């Protein structure tokens, strides 16, 4: 059974049908940053997905053709093409889904905002080319800091005249994946049947797991505080464990593959596909982007679900997150405004 079969817990029977139906639709998926620490394992997972007919790989790294040749030897249906240098437009042309893990990784002591100076320019250029070469594609942003890079993409796409708020997604799935893992361990639950809603953003205190909404969960005050903190700063745990040699690449690749698969399921017409994602949203006054459960459809975001009832602890955490989210969003918007060449 494919690794990806375990990635979508919410509808295992529909996932199985998608993987085994000979009549399943097929799509072109492009990965930008495909030779990197996230991009390579992400591409490996996507090569196993039979909804992907054409897996288009792009990276500035010279090893990109080798990554493509390596994946191309796998006996799964997807055709693989590899692109580098000035061929980004060719890699993205007519893609149905574009997944962007490109950029520098986080290192010890770095916050996601420390990545901004470098990754902002990388993501802005990708968004510009994507808007010109694949204006109807769903654009999935993994590159950090997501709280700022998604607004950057929105502003760039507006400039090229191809912004569709329903097809731009910040991939916050890793926060959900971590929350499911940590909560299942704490509650002694089956992790494959655990589904924690995580709202807010994708950095530190902006990550808010809604533990109060879990049915039949029993948390002590200390456990709830500790679990929330661990989910918020799970990335630091990985950076430290790798001794400064890397960040969360494998788990992020898994999370990215899960979210991409959900996008593809919705594209082929499956109903009731719900994932948390950072999208243009008005559910929190004063914020133009926010991560919450969204219902996906053939045209992208079909419905943004409200936060729902939360307890006093979570209300306080949300209040703390809002100013940081607002500043990160504005930082992304101003970056594009100050770059007339984009």
Structure description:
With 342 residues, the protein is an alpha/beta fold. It has two domains: 3-172, Rossmann fold; 173-247 and 273-331, Lactate dehydrogenase/glycoside hydrolase, family 4, C-terminal (L-2-Hydroxyisocaproate Dehydrogenase, Chain A, domain 2, Alpha-Beta Complex), CATH 3.90.110. It is 42% helix and 17% strand. It has eleven helices and eleven strands. It has helices at residues 12-20, 39-47, 64-72, 88-92, 116-133, 146-160, 173-187, 221-232, 234-241, 250-267, 312-337; strands at residues 27-32, 52-58, 79-83, 97-100, 138-141, 168-170, 198-200, 207-209, 273-280, 289-297, 300-304. The strands form three sheets. The protein has a six-stranded parallel sheet, sandwiched between helices. Strands 9-10-11 form a three-stranded antiparallel sheet. It has a two-stranded antiparallel ribbon with strand order 7-8. Helix 5 (116-133) packs parallel to helix 6, helix 6 (146-160) packs across helix 11 and helix 7 runs antiparallel to helix 8 (221-232). The longest helix is centred in the last third of the chain and has 26 residues, at 312-337. 49% of the residues are buried. Residues 1-22 have low confidence and may be disordered.
